[in-house]
Every structure is written in C-alpha cells, then in structure tokens.
Amino acid sequence: KSSKMIPVMIMGKVISKKKYPWYEYIVAVVILFGVAVFILAENSDKANNSEQQTTMAGLFLLIGYLTFDSFTSQWQGHLFDDYDMSSYQMMVGVNSFSAFLTLLSLLQTGELLSSIDFVLANPLCAQHIAGFAVCGATGSMFIFYTIKNFGPLVFTMIMVTRQLVAIILSCIFYGHHIDAGGIGGAVIVFAAIGYRIYRKESDKRKKKQEQKQNELSQITQQSELKVEKQ
Q: What's the pLDDT tens digit per position in 91-143?
C-alpha cells in the first residue's frame, strides 16, 4: 500500500498520456521507502510476537488492489478533464453504482431483510449509520475536490502520508513508542514532500518569468514594427 504513487503514475501515462517530470518519480520512490521503513519499524514488535505468512493469494489481492485503486483515481481525473464534471456529479455517479452493487450483494446473500429488521430493532444503530454516512459523504467531497483541482497523484500522496500521520498522532495521544527507524522513515517522507513542494514552486516561478519575457518580447516586436511603419 505504501507504493500506491508508482502505480498511479503508470496508470496516468496509460489512461491520460500524462508526462511527469523526473523528480516526481524520485519523490514517489523516496516516499515509498520512507513509509515502508516507518510501517515496518512500527510493526516489528507485533511481527516478533505472532506468526505471519505471505501467500500467493494475498499477493495477488494486493496487486489487484493497487491496480484497481490507481485506475479509479486516474479515471476519475480523466472524466473531470474530458467532461468538465463537478465533484457532486462524480459523487452521485460513484455512490449510485456502489449502492446498486451493495443491493445486489444483499439480495444474493439473502441478508437484505434481516439487515433492515436489525436496524429497525436497534434505533441507536441507525443513528450510528447516519453519522457514518454524513462523515463518509463529507470525506468524499474532499476526495473528489482534490482529484479535480490537484490531480490523482497529489490525492494519492495525501492518502499515503495520511496513514503515517495517523500513526504519529496515535503515538502522541496514546503514548505509543516510536523507535529510531520509525522516526527516520517519517523524516524521509516529509523531506520528500517538502522537496516536491519546493520544485513545484520553482517551476511555477520559472513559468511566470518565461511568460513575462514572452510578453515583453511581443511588446518590443510590436513597437519595432510601429517604428518601421512610421
């Protein structure tokens, strides 16, 4: 899951023919390394205390997750660009299909009526579902707004670093221990993000300077033409 940025960039080149500057690839690899170091350091004690086994089925599930997740954000960005959709239109479309597929699943397993009966018999559960739905809808608005205005790659970077920030906050509020490896991984990630921000700002300044120079050259050429005509 820490390597989500790389499949997103690959999918962007396949779907939208996007071209990323070389430093984007370096930042993606460095963030992958930093998050992996942080997560592995955080889970090292748990791994020592329990048996863990990697299976081919689990590996294929992770590959499928990375593939479909990277395709989803890039395809949403593609729809935003080609059809000028709003975040709310995207939200309605995605949630409509999600509700339809969930309904099919409930009908296929025969759990639809029993689920309704359970919610009716437990009003507190209905309140919790409503609260969860409001939070989920609010989060979806932020997600689609980010993809529409900043692109799938920025959204993926936010989601990857979110898990790191969540663990750090958990350690601060609940007194969990972070060893030197975890701190080093966090420093690597935030340094990579800082470098990306710096390069983006530098590129913006260069573009503005180039635009000003082009405008000045055009004004100079126009004035020279006027002088020649006179």
A: 999 999 999 999 999 999 999 999 999 999 999 999 999 999 999 999 999 99
Measured distance CA(205)–CA(4) in Å, rounded: 29
For 56-95, b/e burial (b = at least 16 CB within 10 A) is eeeeeeeeeebeebbbebbebbbbbeeeebebeebbeeee
Token reading at 51: 């048996």
**Torsion of Cα atoms, 187 then 5 then 144 then 148, to 10°:** 100
Asked if 69 contacts 115 with a C-beta cutoff of 8 angstroms, the reply is no
Distances (CA, A) of 225 to 92, 160, 215, 216: 56, 55, 15, 14
Q: At what angle do helices 5-15 and 56-83 cross, to 10 degrees?
A: 50
- Quickly tell me which residue has 């990579």 as its tokens: 192
Written as one string, the DSSP assignment of 104-115 is: HHHHHHT-HHHH
Identify the three-state secondary structure at position 69.
helix
Tell me which amino acid residue 16 is: S
Chain mean position to CA 215: 37
Q: How distant is the alpha carbon of residue 176 from its chain centre?
A: 26
**Residue 46's CB: how many other CB atoms inside 10 A?**
9
Count of all residues that appear for the chain in the document: 230
Percent of the chain with pLDDT over 90: 34
- What are the backbone angles phi and psi of residue 86, rounded to the nearest 5°? -90, 165
